[in-house]
UniProtKB/TrEMBL annotation:
Its main location: membrane. PANTHER family: PROPHAGE BACTOPRENOL-LINKED GLUCOSE TRANSLOCASE HOMOLOG. Keywords: Membrane, Transmembrane, Transmembrane helix. This is GtrA family protein. The keyword Transmembrane applies. Coiled coil: none annotated. Belongs to the GtrA family. It comes from Flavobacterium lipolyticum.
Length: 143
């Protein structure tokens, strides 16, 4: 049903997401617990740092074969920034809901929220919109 290439790309994207995510999550805890920022602000800051790491790995390693390394970085950065804004908003809101409505610790609520946002929002948009292969570009690169 899925090609080996599609599975490999998905796994690579998960490595990129993990590295960005672990940075994001660790920094969120540091900012909240040590620097006493509200977790919603911590998520904003840590999400931005994690996004830079995620974008870099995705662009250089994961999707370079699909979208070509020479793709217009400005367009990719703009699209990625929109995805990150949506992602950070969903993570902040979801974590807040788990904490306020269900009385779940923000660290646990964040992990639950992240799993939904990562697979249902981030990955599809990053793969099919941010780093989508341009048909004209693929023809040129294959010649």
């Amino acid at each position: 049903m899925f090609s080996k290439k599609a599975v490999f790309t998905f796994l690579q994207a998960q490595v990129a997401a993990f590295l960005g995510g672990i940075t994001d999550y660790g920094l969120m805890i540091l900012l909240t617990e040590v620097f006493q920022l509200h977790f919603a602000f911590s998520i904003l800051i840590s999400g931005t740092v994690g996004a830079v790491i995620n974008f870099s790995i995705n662009r250089i390693w994961v999707f370079k074969n699909q979208s070509g390394y020479s793709s217009h970085i400005n367009s990719q950065l703009f699209k990625f920034a929109l995805v990150v804004l949506g992602s950070i908003s969903l993570k902040s809101f979801g974590t807040l809901i788990f904490q306020k409505v269900f009385q779940i610790d923000y660290r646990i609520g964040r992990l639950i929220t992240d799993s939904f946002v990562s697979y249902g929002f981030n990955y599809p948009l990053i793969k099919y919109w941010v780093f989508r292969a341009n048909k004209k570009q693929n023809v040129v690169e294959s010649n």
